[in-house]
Amino acid sequence: MAQKLWDSHVVSSTPEEPDLLYVDLHLIHEVTSPQAFEGLQLAGRRVRRPDLTVATMDHNVPTRGGLRAADEQSRRQMELLAENCRREGIPLHQIGSRRQGIVHVIGPELGLTQPGMLIVCGDSHTSTHGAFGALAFGIGTSEVEMVLATQCLPQNRLRDLAVNVDGALPLGVTAKDLVLGLIGRTGISQGQGHLVEYRGSTIRALSMEGRMTVCNMSIEWGAKAGMVAPDDTTFKYLERRPHAPRGAAWEAALDHWRTLDSDPDSVFDHEISVDARELEPHVTWGTNPGQVAPVTGRVPSPHSETDERALRYMDLRPGTAFADIAIDRVFIGSCTNARIEDLRAAANVVAGKHVHSSVRAMVVPGSTSVKKVAEDEGLDAIFKAAGFEWRNAGCSMCLGMNPDILAPGERCASTSNRNFEGRQGSGGRTHLMSPPMAAAAAITGHIVDVRELL
Amino acid sequence: MEPVSKVAGRMAPLDLADVDTDQIIPKQFLKRIERTGYGPFLFYDWRAKGDFVLDKPEHKGASVLVTGENFGCGSSREHAPWAIKDAGYHAIIAPSFADIFRANCYKTGILAVTLPDRQVRHLIDLASEDPAAEVTVDLEKLEVRGQGFAYHFEIDSFAREMLLNGLDEITLVERHAPAIGSYESQRPAWLPSVR
């Protein structure tokens, strides 16, 4: 499927140059675009297709107190994005607007992300959009400038890798556990140079939210893009979304989308098989997403200097049961796990219980629209009654560019995607896990197998 | 961009695998709106702890960073190569790089060169034992050479062309304007357009 998508976007192909690909949707945000717009202006260029470009503010927006709560530099970045969008005629979902949110949450929920498209953004988690059968990957700021100027991107063809996942996910095991388990097996660089297609009955049975979680973390094992062939689950999710085609256009689109199915006879450069029935809830113990284990286990003995360094940073001893690791903070949010289904799953664990007295817990919905839906369903009341902070949408503590950060030494159960050193705040310690697992940790005050609470 | 054909100088050995972009340039420094001035913030948290290898007097002024596999994994922030270049490193040698990071290096004019483990190990050991040892990363001859050795490397031929000639890639793509226009006119009508 990946090569089919690639071929359909080739504008020009010569032996001397990389393929020139046409970009159907360019998502931009405040942090990786300022220098691209500056470059454009210095060269006297304009944005070629502002109508195929959509901007949002997400990376450094404060999750309470509005724009005024932002530090001066963050505010300047957001104001500059607004100014650039105004000048070039690019639609912007700014802080305070009802469609604002994390770029990889709003694309799908607005119906902008559709099967067969080529989508790029100056953010590595752009792989999320692959869940719709789109070719989607992160780019650097120079490439952002290239796409703004030409709507095209020169790219060298990548190899194909299939991940076949079969069997039903056991109770309490989520898409997050599936992808964490996968990365635990592959390590964090096996995906390098590949486009990944996730296939099999388990993937088919996942909701769009679940598929997005899996595709989102493709980059965490080195793959630039991950994708799932579109099917009825995809089409049902898309129908009647604000930017989804309507009427005859919907029918025409549907006819095309149905041709994008995964070919069972496809030949891949590599294939990996995962038995979903054997999966357990997973939790990371180190400082990269590949340093991960089933929650029923113990902190492993180090196998490398990298492992040793990680254990030192995390202040963990080999042999410690995960259930004996106390937690200071809980973060439910990020482009990986802050969609409505994630919040429902977490609320389901939290309902009628209370956050442990030693834990500070927060929920940061992935978008203003997710927040609204959650409030309509009464999820906010459940979280607040349990002692969670209920915040406005943004990337927040996933990368700590706004005021939501860990203090040095604090240990966090987080639904985000990276447990790198200092990621959530200098000296902070991150344990990645699923939303129900993070919710359970908030209640018990330590890492715990969520299945004990279900 | 300035043409780059070779980088010659001393090496700084960063003997670690999987160095991520959050370490190269922590997020609090991504709030700047310029492309320059990131050098002082390179590896900020590691340097703040003191005794960081790149800060050792014998490695000051090095222009070639030699490091472990999967260098630059994580985010797409181009601020990472900007910081590396700003701090004076114009070439990076490693057994492998994260894809987006390597592409960003080329755009920034940094020679990101892949060599086999064994050769990288030799360079790291050499830099540690003899910090004054010099190497030349030669993009024209496709080799890394020093006293008594010359290692051949492969690099994407288009990236090499761009670097050697200091070409503006956008200008090159703009030459394809007719093809772009023709592709554009045939895109299906149902594709989203936001007005």
Give a written overview of the molecule.
The complex is a heterodimer of chains A (454) and B (195). Chain A has 454 residues and is α/β, with parallel strands linked by helices. Chain A has 15 helices and 19 strands. In chain A, the strands form five sheets. A five-stranded parallel sheet of chain A has the order 5-4-3-6-7. In chain A, strands 17-16-15-18-19 form a five-stranded parallel sheet. Chain A has a four-stranded parallel sheet with strand order 11-10-9-12. In chain A, strand 1 and strand 2 (19-22) form a beta hairpin. In chain A, helix 6 (175-186) packs parallel to helix 8 (208-216). The radius of gyration of chain A is 21 Å and the shape is globular. Chain A starts with a helix and ends in a 10-residue tail after the last helix. Chain B is an alpha/beta fold. Chain B has a seven-stranded mixed sheet with strand order 4-3-2-1-5-6-7. In chain B, helix 3 (79-86) packs across helix 4 (99-108). The longest helix of chain B has 13 residues, at 117-129. The model of chain B has no long low-confidence stretch (mean pLDDT 97). The chains are: A alpha/beta (454), B alpha/beta (195). The interface between A and B is large, with 81 and 56 residues.
